[in-house]
Amino acid sequence: MRRYTRLYWEFAKSHMKVMMEYRIDFLIGVASVMLEQFASIFFVKVVFDHIEQINGWSFYEILFIYGIAATGRSIHQIFFDNLWTLGWQYIRPGKLDRLLIRPVNPLFHVVADRLHQDGFGQLIIGLIILGTAIPQVDLVWGAAEIAMLVMMIISSGLIFVAINLFFATFSFWMIDSLPIVWAVFNLSDFARYPLTIYHKGIRMFLTWIIPYGFTAFYPAAYFIDKSGYKEFALWTPVAAIVCCVLAYVFWNRGLKAFASTGS
Amino acid sequence: MGKYWQIAKGRMQENTAYSAWYWAGTVSSVMRLLIIYFFWQAVYANQTTIQNINLETMLTYIVIAMLLQGFVGGVGNELAENIKEGQVAIELMRPYDMIFKMFAVDVGEKVMYLIQGTIPMILIAYFFMDLSFPKSPETILLFVVSALVGIWIGTFFDFLVGVLAFWTVNVWGVRVLKESLITFFSGALVPITLFPDWLRTITEFLPFQAMVYLPVSIYSGLITGTDAYMALGVQLFWLISLYVLVRVIWSQAIKQITIFGG
Hints:
The structure holds two protein chains of two kinds. Chain A contains 14 helices and no strands. Chain A is globular, with a radius of gyration of 19 Å. By secondary structure, chain A is mainly alpha-helical. By secondary structure, chain B is mainly alpha-helical. A two-stranded antiparallel ribbon of chain B has the order 1-2. In chain B, strand 1 and strand 2 form a beta hairpin. The longest helix of chain B is centred in the first third of the chain and has 42 residues. Chain B starts with a helix and ends with a helix. The interface between A and B is large, with 46 and 46 residues.
């Protein structure tokens, strides 16, 4: 464990140096992610200028859901973004074979190869959204609530990671599963709004099959109990752990299948 | 025998990767339609109109806008790739106008996209979401012209953004930046009439509304009569201005390459 922490630090340090070489690009990356998020929030704001509530949720309450998703996603984007590139940067050019002979866990190596600068934009905007929403939401905030919120956000981030890892693993069989990863990731857009506005089938799907519901709506429902999901929301950390374990087991299977073809 | 099988298999795997992109795109579009549908149903649950727009018109607007937005842009990414990989220098020596060549490739891609992506999506949308058609043949004609002009404005703008790759390394960031600007100001998410006044004023001075908002408003009947022709005029103004800008900036950029290339 200590060895891996030190290794990660070394990887991160060298990566930071590269990042600072291209300062303008760093800024463009951060700004672009922030603007992207801002555009979709502004959309909700424009709609709310003309109405009072959606399905019982006010503007700031929706913002709160959104803020949890955005912050959770930043964990994924800063630390685990390299999973996206598994196919075209590792498997296709044969770089993964080289990783396999190193005395480091290959998953760790792929993940540690990159810290993604644009994720910082995501983190900043996520915190801004939460900071804007929380004072406007009718809630008493104590230490327990804050601890809970942090845990929910970490769980949300881990679910993003697990889902991406799971679908990136298909690359071992099809060289590059990026299109699948991308399509599945787009599903997380559903999670921005209260799940209760959707058809029951979609709600089930986002809870039990690809559990993006746990990245935003259920955690938010713990704090703002509009639809009776407060109890259910407590399963969020469990869902996160289960997802991570499943994804990791699947990753190991993929890796084994890959190594045995010997390509 | 074994190694040829491997080559063939590799090729097949690569091809599945491309068709996988097609299916991923289709699945994502269907999902976006679903989100749009349920979101607006929920918004209209407690009212019949918003700014005099009813649910049917709103859904029509949003869906057509989403589909049209898919055509705005595209050439810039190709250009940026060419620049990054140093292909431009070779391209420039070839006996054709590189700008026209790139636009031609882009038109080809868009026709494919229309057939493979948009038409199935339109069918799904009409079938399940019960959108409205324009009232008269004149409106349809106006919409088609306006949409084509809008797409070209988007293409020119995209080209201008692509040229930035000469100066920046983070092409991905610039692309997201551009996409957000367009999504935001073009009225792709929500009719610009719903914007707060100050923002509406700003958008009137920007080219983005001419890409999506004006054509789609003509289609869905938010803009009618002489206003529709006025809108077309505004679009033509942007079309010409941006084309001139493309030419000017491109010749500057070429000078830059010639200097680098010696």
